[in-house]
Amino acid sequence: MTPGPDEIIRTEQLTKVYPGDIRAVDGLDLAVRAGEIFGLLGPNGAGKTTTAGMLTTRVIPTSGRALVDGIDVVAHPVRAKQVIGVVPQTNTLDRSLSVWENLYFHGRFFGMAARVARREADRLLEQFRLADRAKVPVLALSGGMAQRLMAARAIMHRPAILFLDEPTAGLDPQSRIALWDILGELHRDGQTILLTTHYMEEADELCDRLAIIDHGKLLALGTPDELKRATGADTFVTVSAAGDLDAMATYLARHVDGVERADRVEDTVRLMVRGTQGVLPAVVTAAEGGGFTVTDLSVTEPTLETVFIDLTGKDLRE
Hints:
Number of helices: 11
Distance between the termini: 35 Å
Strand content: 25-35%
CATH superfamily of the largest domain: P-loop containing nucleotide triphosphate hydrolases
Order of helices and strands: EEEHEEHEHHHEHEHEEHEHEEHEH
Number of domains: 2
CATH topology of the largest domain: Rossmann fold
Structural class: alpha/beta
Number of strands: 14
CATH architecture of the largest domain: 3-Layer(aba) Sandwich
Mean pLDDT: 90
CATH class of the largest domain: Alpha Beta
Helix content: 25-40%
């Protein structure tokens, strides 16, 4: 397996099966280009973290291959670790060290000269808005600050690829936006970033391209706009009503002009519709004509969540 000239990550039939025949990742083929932010998007348990774990040498694949910066992660894990930086879901900062020392000693561990490590630690604390916390213990940091420090530490040794696993899970909106801003700066500087997330807004805001996965399988791949256009619908109408929702979905698909698809999703019916003119009155009229009482209606443009629902028939936030 030879990666293309601009590919910095490549997987071929990458598979992980845990005891009990639990297939966490199932024949995954991916190619990530140098310099892009690439997202793995899917619900909890989709296989995102396991995929990232295999790419970063923390999980050994059952079968298939994976290359990072041209290095086989199974055959040469030590070399692979030299070219990657990892921000895991859990806080792995050294609590016995100050904020600045966490960066400095990480650089020294990766072979940086003391002078270079000191300079880089100072520079990264400025870039990640943590310079005023340099001397405090890491236990004094908020969740958002700790996440930023882990990201700074991960790129301290200037890796070719930065991996972030659910980077904003549990963060407040202000901390999430601050981290997004910093990732955008890194991206503009040419840093390749692979992140896993189940937040649609995060994937839409940050990713050049993304892969939607579920049950360890690749469902769709493309830019956010490409994926949203692939639904073939201009509008999604969500209908709440009393009665048999499966029957209502079938009825509305037949009696509302422009409906490409109608699915029951939990306690609602979601319609994929071409065109928007007069669609809400048409839905209400058709539902009443079929003996259904509509209790609520909402209209949205295609989103990454509606793409996922279109592919799987379930909510991405599960």
